[in-house]
Amino acid sequence: RRLGWERALRLGAGDGRLRSSFGVTFAEAAPISAAGPTARVLRPRAMLELERPLPRGRLLLRTLAAGVSADEALPPQELVLMGGPISGPGYGFQSLVGGVGVSQRLEWQARVPFVPISLGRFGRVPATLVLAPYLHGVWLDRSPSGEHGLFPAVGLATIGVFDLLRLDVARGLRGGRWTFSLDVTRDLWPVL
Prior knowledge:
Elements lengths: L1 E10 L4 E14 L9 E16 L2 E11 L12 E3 L13 E3 L1 E14 L3 E2 L5 E2 L2 E14 L7 E12 L4 E8 L5 E7 L8
Antiparallel strand pairs: 1-2, 2-3, 3-4, 4-7, 5-6, 7-10, 8-9, 10-11, 11-12, 12-13
């Protein structure tokens, strides 16, 4: 059973934007062993994203939070899974596992000159792209592996080709690694 809401707002007359979503899922998880009890799991999740224009660029803050309420031994797929380009750049996909997780990104985006790319008879890609350095942190608690606390990362993204493609390079600073990802703009995610 699932309950949730999403909301997007424009902030003032400027170019600012606020997106938020909240959801709660209730499920019953099968026991790990045949003799174990069925676990009832309540999973709240929330996302808050704020974009604000600045004199020389744009500031992006994104917070993701999730948790599980069950105290019983849960199958690993029922825990909070973070890591990967959205919730934990610089760490492997779903490699950060816990009972509670919060992911926070602070990103500054600035448009810089770039080489225009010809698309033949279809025109040219604009002679700019967006550079976006960022700091990212994931906080985990109640991890089955015993690794909890803050998992920081630094990264740099480039956004180009009509602001449709995003290339990210990030490095996790606590046992992380170099990660690379290519994505399309979030505005196209519902279409895909």
